[in-house]
Amino acid sequence: MSASTTTVKSSYSVSRKKSQWKTIWIRFKKNKMALGGLIVFLLMAAIVLSADLWLDYEQGAMTMDIANAYQSPSAQHIFGTDQYGRDYFTRVVYGGRISMFVGIATVMVSLIFGGLIGATAAYYGGKVDEVLMRLMDVLMAIPSTLLAITIISALGSSLFNLIVAMGVSQIARMARIVRSSVMSVKGQEYIEACRACGTSDARIILRHIIPNALGPVLVQVTQTVARSVITVASLSFVGLGVSEPTPEWGGMLSFAKTQMRYYPYLSLFPGFAVVMSVMSLTLAGDGLRDAMDPRLRN
Predict the structure, then answer these.
(1) Is 249 in contact with 187 (CB distance < 8 Å)?
(2) Cross-strand partners of 87
(3) 159: domain range?
(4) Does 35 score more than 90 pLDDT?
(5) What does pTM read for this prediction?
(6) pLDDT tens, 157-174?
(7) pLDDT digits (tens, 9 = 90+) for 60-79
(8) How far is CA 150 from CA 108, 155, 235, 274, 287, in A?
(9) Is the peptide bond before 264 cis (omega within 30 degrees of 0)?
(10) For the chain, how many structural domains are there in total?
(11) Could you give the angle at which helices 249-256 and 214-237 cross, rounded to 10 degrees?
(12) CATH number of the domain residue 254 falls in
């Protein structure tokens, strides 16, 4: 098969893929719940990421002012103050930065390692597939939260170790999703054309297979970020995540549970932030999955 034929088939594949993504976006926009979830999450992300432009982290989130401790929400402190007189709104906003950063970092770790493992297993098949998938089965047999707790207990509690633990706990799930997607792509004609032209396996996997198998992976990405946000909050809640004085939603809820009777706002605001971020991502992920479901296409 000539190089020109390969180019034509690759160009056709790219054009067809663009048309599919356009159709998916149109279908996604029709799902009001999913679109609303995406908008809410993007707004939360924009607030968190732009916090340095309009909030003073050191003064609001870190500086103690015992004289102003436990102030109820007011015009000066719209979320009130905590036990050390720190502005609670600033701490909730910057706590979201930690949760979202860990969530995205978890996705990157699981996507890099899980993606390579899944793509390699699907592309080569046979014994390579068998060995890699049995290793992933071992990881899948351990509940992800329990695996993360085990890793953090062994390595110690820190932000870096938290990311490592969360990433490792999601590798097996990501590897299986990528493997399934690659299996559906690797038999396409343009992949066979690349093989016939002598294109290296690494180039075929990285340049042609993985980009064309991204659909289900994107759904998994949204679900992984949502799981990571709530898992990070849970780990911090039990003292295995980010510790004081760094603001983090789970850590803030951990202290607030002892003060709910007298200062309910301490648990209300970080709890609401966790619920909204997880719910918005879940709705967006479900909408994306429905938009990509071939059974829903006309």
Answers:
(1) no
(2) 81
(3) 3-296
(4) yes
(5) 0.82
(6) 888 899 999 999 999 999
(7) 889 898 998 999 999 999 99
(8) 21, 9, 11, 24, 34
(9) no
(10) 1
(11) 30
(12) 1.10.3720.10
Mean pLDDT value across residues 1-21: 55
- Per-residue tokens: 152: 């953090």
Residue with tokens 């996705």: 107
Residues 199, 179: Cα–Cα separation, whole Å: 21
Mean pLDDT to the nearest integer, 173-188: 86
Nearest to 221 by CA among 98, 120, 112: 112
User: With 60 as the cut, is the pLDDT of residue 13 above it?
Assistant: no
For residue 25, give the amino acid letter: W
Q: How many residues does the chain have?
A: 298
Q: Which amino acid is at 40?
A: V
Per-residue buried b or exposed e for 3-34, using 16+ beta carbons within 10 Å of the residue's own CB: eeebeebbeebeeeeeeeeeebeebbeebeeb
* Angstrom distance (rounded) from CA 242 to CA 248: 7
SS (H, E, C) 137-200: HHHHCCCHHHHHHHHHHHHCCCHHHHHHHHHHHHHHHHHHHHHHHHHHHCCCHHHHHHHHCCCC
User: What token pair was written down for 219?
Assistant: 């759904």
> Between residues 122 and 211, which one has the greater pLDDT?
122
pLDDT of residue 291: 86
Helix, strand, coil % (nearest 5) of the chain?
A: 80, 0, 20
Interval 44-48 mean pLDDT = 94
Quote the distance between the C-alpha of residue 130 and its chain's center. 28
On the question of pLDDT at 2 being above 70, the answer is no
Q: Strand, helix or coil at 125?
A: coil
SS3 call for 87: strand
Tokens of 97: 């930065």
